[in-house]
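Complex 374.
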Amino acid sequence: MPPETPTKAPAPPVSLIDLDRSKLADLVTHCGEKPYRAKQLYRHLYVNLADDVDQMTDLSRAFREKLSDMSRIGSLHVKKVMKGDRGLTRKALFRMDDGSPVETVLMVYADRATVCVSSQSGCPMACVFCATGKLGHLHDLTAGQIVEQVLWAARTLKTIAADHAEKGEKLPDRLTNIVFMGMGEPFNNYRNWWEAVERLHDPEGFNMGARNFTVSTVGLVPGIRKLADEKLQVNLAISLHTPDDEQRTEMMPVNRSFPIADLIAAVKDYIAKTNRRVSFEYVLLQGKNDNPDQAERLARLLKPDGVPLLCHVNLIPWNPVPGTPLGRSERARVLAFQNVLQQAGIPCTVRVERGVDIGAACGQLAGDGEKAET
Ligand code: SAH
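Predicted structure with S-adenosyl-L-homocysteine bound:
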């Protein structure tokens, strides 16, 4: 029998959201259209939030047909949308072409609407308390795949706001905040992540203000230093989780490469350069890192020269991750921890969680616990 020749699956069509403005312009001229059509197309994608070329009725039918033949609007496939908190929290489970999961969470409040976006499918950082870490690193998302999640949230928000308006309840119909706190480590996919920020910021497109973005990192020092030099000033959050190096290495293997002293030095330099307030996230695990003496050590760490850094501590009672032998700190311990920090002059709040019932809260994003499935 002749050896079987492997048949290669045809490459999937290009995703329009993966093209920057100049590549979009090239595509438009390649289709034989006038260059100004590129601007129309760009506005359809980022201002009108079109998810189908047939919604772009000011483009000729022939052009729309060409676009549908050669491209698609995004490359993430929505598989499931879950509702929590009376419908005001929505978690989307997307799959990439190879089946890898990507999750996005939209949280709607009376006065604001936040989307929590993934920067990778899975995550290489392997923090022991985090569900995403258990998946390992499946993919870096492209800039377009990061942007696409925001566009999904913006469209979903419009329908939620319209439904509530019918009942006489006013909710925001535009996203006010984009936080990179979903699956993955943004600074481990810095280039694509930053391209997504710039795209979403573009005043002629999606037009999200720089101050309305927040990026959260495990503490990759080179990323913190790079961010300090960017022209757009987004908010920075650092997952610190303990003031003790040994414990941090146990909880977060990244601490071997970037121990606490290096991390705090980078944050100090970041604040000196940008004059921006940094947030420290602190997941509270019962009996592990929630003792009052650790709160004291944390306070000292955040006052390196005897005065508090320009910072804020965000306490996050741990959200359960199946199969993980850890416990969520009791409320009294959370409040005692907060009190020590406040007494020491460090601003400190407890994060109000959304979506715990649908596995959408911090650290719970694991694509329903499944790996790739095609
Ligand atoms: N990789 C980035 C982005 C993830 S943000 C980072 O680590 O900062 C998600 C935040 O939720 C991080 O602070 C993370 O440490 C925290 N987290 C992870 N697992 C959690 C859990 N089970 N409960 C509460 N917070 C968790």
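The chain has two domains: 15-72, 77-358.
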